[in-house]
Amino acid sequence: FLIGEISSTATLAMIPVINEKKVALFAPATSSHKLANVSPFFARNWPSNDAEATAAAIYAFDTMKYKKPFT
Predict the structure, then answer these.
(1) Measured between alpha carbons, how far is 4 from 28 in angstroms, rounded to an integer?
(2) Closest by alpha carbon to 10, among 30, 24, 33?
(3) pTM of this prediction?
């Protein structure tokens, strides 16, 4: 079991190694959408950038009642 990087780029570089060695990797703050379902040995506790953006947009639209994007 490894606790990995906070950098998505460094974490992506580790994926082939954990797959080959069959070692679990937990990355505490990686957010790249490229890491979604990338390996059965990989987990993270931070949502992807896509999930964060979607949640923020829903909140702004539904809760804050914004109807247009900021410019």
Answers:
(1) 7
(2) 30
(3) 0.71
